[in-house]
Design brief:
Mean pLDDT of chain A: 87
Largest sheet of chain B: none
Helix content of chain B: over 70%
Number of strands of chain B: 0
Number of domains of chain B: 2
Pfam families (chain A): SBP_bac_8
CATH superfamily of the largest domain in chain A: Periplasmic binding protein-like II
CATH class of the largest domain in chain B: Mainly Alpha
Largest interface: A-B, 21 and 21 residues
Organism (chain A): Marinobacterium lutimaris
Signal peptide (chain A): 1-27
Distance between the termini of chain B: 15 Å
Protein name (chain A): Putative spermidine/putrescine transport system substrate-binding protein
Radius of gyration of chain B: 25 Å
Keywords (chain A): Signal
Number of domains of chain A: 2
Structural class of chain A: alpha/beta
Number of helices of chain A: 16
Oligomer: heterodimer
CATH topology of the largest domain in chain A: D-Maltodextrin-Binding Protein, domain 2
């Protein structure tokens, strides 16, 4: 790993001296930034990462990991960090922070976070982008479409085949919302009540999906009439020709966060990068390239995001108000982990 | 391996007898020829399995907690019971479907038998993932099977053929069928036709000839094919994951869930070890009745 660092340094130096003959070489900060690959990484490269290099002079080395947790754990426990900043579900940041693998954020050095609501921050991470677990439905097969989880659970007035995700995250929240719990009173989750409510709907669930692609297939092929999905997947299915719709009402607002690896190679540049990545101006570029909402709501005030696009985003204030914000801190807690383990038992009964 | 052992000779005679010298040299050559394969097997199979075994006892020091969990929590029992249940059903179904096919291949004229054999083997070369998705397209609510059934009026509502145990079993039987047909075919082919003719000439009806002569002689093929299918089915992962609708949790899926749930290799390793022990036990019991080489397809 050390060798690799040296290699990066060497490469960096060579490029710099070639490009900036005579210029001030000290100005070059660099970070290794990790996201999840695919269309999402491509979009943020154009929207956020390239502009950061341009405007702040931070050289960014990109890496990607669909599941960053094992790498965070390995780098933290061996003391050989190669990553600086990671874009990952906040569950990993909080859990990593509690285990001493993730750096605590000194918010005095991150002024751009001050305009963000407290719910968008943890001691170890800040929101980077938003997506939502929403109720999607097939407009072809349903005469009356459901608009929230109460309707989804109402099998008499809303007949049809149903699907949910084969994972407790967001599913337990949906069950409690269907049972009449207010969105802002969800946490700590009443796990027993949620599972009892899920037992009610279980006989009517045709499929418990495991991947986002599978959920899109279920909707697209008309295999089920209503299901929980991620909003980006619904809009992709609609774009591909599915006659489908979705509702943000009682959706569960989720996000990925930025966090910094403890004792990373470039700690100072990491903080600068983190602050720049959540600046309202750059965050406002995000929805122009992909169907995700900016992590910093101040982006909506920049005038860059048209009203038309803004209204479709999960974190648009009007949409966010209808939804429940997922508490990753609760899911990282012991009770959250216990609920996750209980899921397997629930599925097999 | 057994071909390598030579009859033991006294060392004093070995020094003088040139034929023994030759034999020894041949043995060395054989060992050298074998060593790349042995190295690969050791590196890629023995070492990881040993590592797996050690890890199943590890969680910040030696522990039995992973095994304790398997033997105390109900879900593990349920998963193993379901895995065995599905494997038994799949084996029986594959045998009932595969036996007539293998029988037909041995009795048909050579040209036809080659065609039938090809039909059995060709799907074998297609990816398991592709075949699972193909079954999904056929069996789903608006799939080919349900649409046809409704069109001819056999049913007025689509049947639930997939996203459950039934879908898992259908696809698994299809994928494992060649593993049943091939050992059956290789056994049946070796049954001398004279014996069947002798039976007929002694006045037995065709059914009696089949039941008293042919079937008992094909028994080793039945056991070999059934064992292969059963054991392969125990470790199936992709098919139940795609066809089971999330409710059909088999042992291999428990291995992957355990990694996600406990972010600890030990918990998953323990499940793998228990599954492996089951497989070894089954092979061990079966090998008392049929020699192991026969199950694995050699003559």
């Amino acid at each position: 790993m050390k060798y690799r660092n040296r290699l990066y340094q060497l490469m960096g130096c060579t490029f710099l001296s070639a490009a900036l003959l005579g210029a001030n070489a000290n100005a070059a900060d660099k970070v290794t930034f990790v996201s999840q690959g695919g269309a999402w990484q491509d979009a943020q490269t154009v929207a956020i990462l390239d502009p950061i290099t341009e405007q702040y002079g931070i050289e960014i080395m990109q890496d990607s990991a669909p599941d960053a947790w094992p790498m965070i754990k390995t780098q933290g426990t061996t003391g050989q960090a190669v990553w600086d900043v990671v874009d990952t579900p906040p569950l990993n940041c909080v859990r990593g922070g509690q285990q001493g693998l993730i750096e605590e954020i000194d918010y005095a050095k991150v002024p751009n976070a001050s305009s963000m609501p407290d719910a968008y921050k943890t001691p170890y991470s800040v929101a980077y982008e938003f997506y939502s677990s929403v109720l999607a439905y097939n407009k072809d097969s349903l005469e009356k479409v459901p608009t929230n989880w109460v309707d989804f659970w109402d099998v008499e007035n809303f007949p049809g085949k149903r699907a949910l995700r084969n994972h407790p995250l967001a599913t337990l929240e949906a069950a409690l919302l269907a049972d009449g719990v207010a969105p802002d009173a969800l946490y700590p989750l009443d796990v027993d009540r949620a599972f009892a409510k899920l037992e009610e709907i279980k006989p009517y669930i045709t499929t418990w999906w495991t991947s986002g692609g599978q959920s899109a297939q279920l909707l697209f092929d008309g295999e089920v009439d209503m299901l929980m999905m991620w909003n980006g997947r619904v809009s992709a299915a609609v774009e591909a020709g599915a006659n489908a719709g979705m509702s943000y009402d009682q959706g569960i607002l989720q996000s990925t966060h930025l966090c910094m690896i403890k004792d990373s190679p470039n700690p100072e540049a990491a903080v600068k990068f983190l602050n720049a990545a959540i600046s309202p101006d750059l965050q406002a570029n995000l929805p122009l390239h992909i169907d995700y909402g900016p992590g910093n709501p101040a982006a909506f005030d920049t005038g860059k995001i048209s009203e038309e696009i803004a209204k479709t985003l999960p974190s648009y204030p009007e949409n966010a108000a209808k939804q429940a914000m997922m508490s990753y801190e609760w899911w990282a807690s012991e009770k959250g982990e216990a609920a996750e383990r209980r899921w397997l038992e629930f599925m097999q009964q | 391996m057994s071909t390598l052992t030579i009859p033991s000779t006294e060392s004093t005679t070995a020094a003088v007898d040139p034929s023994v010298k030759l034999l020894k040299r041949e043995q060395r050559t054989m060992l050298m020829l074998l060593s790349p394969a042995l190295a690969v097997v050791t590196l890629l199979l023995v070492v990881p399995l040993g590592w797996l075994f050690i890890q199943s006892f590890y969680s910040d020091g030696f522990t039995l907690e992973h095994y304790a969990r398997i033997f105390t929590e109900g879900i593990y029992w349920k998963t193993f019971a379901l895995t065995f249940k599905i494997s038994i059903i799949v084996t029986i179904a594959a045998l009932l479907l595969g036996y007539p096919v293998a029988y037909a291949i041995t009795r048909l004229p050579r040209r036809w038998s080659m065609i039938v054999l090809a039909v059995v083997i060709v799907p074998f070369w297609t990816s398991i993932l592709v075949r699972a998705y193909a079954w999904l397209v056929l069996l789903q609510r608006s799939g080919v099977v349900n649409d046809s059934l409704m069109a001819i009026g056999l049913t007025d509502k689509p049947l639930s053929l997939v996203h459950n145990e039934l879908g898992t079993i259908i696809a698994t039987v299809h994928i494992l069928l060649p593993f049943m047909v091939l050992p059956l075919y290789s056994t049946m082919q070796k049954i001398p036709k004279d014996l069947l003719m002798a039976g007929s000439s002694l006045g037995a009806s065709p059914f009696m000839v089949f039941w008293r002569v042919f079937f008992p002689m094909s028994m080793s093929g039945v056991i070999a094919g059934s064992t292969l299918v059963f054991v392969l089915c125990l470790g199936f992962y992709i098919t139940p994951e795609l066809m089971g609708g999330g409710r059909t949790v088999m042992a291999s899926m428990l291995v992957s869930r355990n990694i996600q749930l406990y972010s600890d290799w030990g918990a998953a390793s323990a499940v793998s070890v228990v599954l492996l022990v089951c497989v070894v036990l089954i092979f061990n019991i079966v090998s008392r009745f049929v020699p192991l080489e026969k199950i694995l397809g050699s003559k």
